[in-house]
From TrEMBL:
Its main location: membrane. The chain crosses the membrane at residues 12-31, 51-70. The keyword Membrane applies. It is found in: Membrane. Signal peptide: none annotated. Keywords: Membrane, Transmembrane, Transmembrane helix. GO terms for cellular component: TIM23 mitochondrial import inner membrane translocase complex. InterPro entries: Romo1/Mgr2 (IPR018450). Belongs to the MGR2 family. This is Reactive oxygen species modulator 1. One of its GO terms (biological process) is protein import into mitochondrial matrix.
Length: 74
């Protein structure tokens, strides 16, 4: 079985990081919107911003970690 290419590993890392970050961001954004009593439809905007921001950061870090790990052979 051929080993995965480095690009495939980094892409998978970014995708998994984005999914995990999005889930965490949605939960945290909902909690913060309720806690700070964000009015009306601004709650949806606030939750969306938190979700996308978290997904981007988690995806970036997991992708970078996968890229660093990609060069190592065991």
């Amino acid at each position: 079985m051929a080993r995965d290419s480095c690009l495939a590993r980094v892409t998978a890392g970014v995708a998994i990081g984005g999914a995990v970050g999005g889930a965490v961001g949605a939960v945290y954004g909902t909690y913060e919107a309720i806690r700070y009593k964000v009015p009306g439809l601004l709650k949806i905007r606030y939750i969306g911003q938190t979700t996308l921001g978290s997904a981007a950061i988690f995806g970036l870090f997991l992708g970078a970690g996968s890229l660093i790990h990609c060069g190592k052979s065991y």
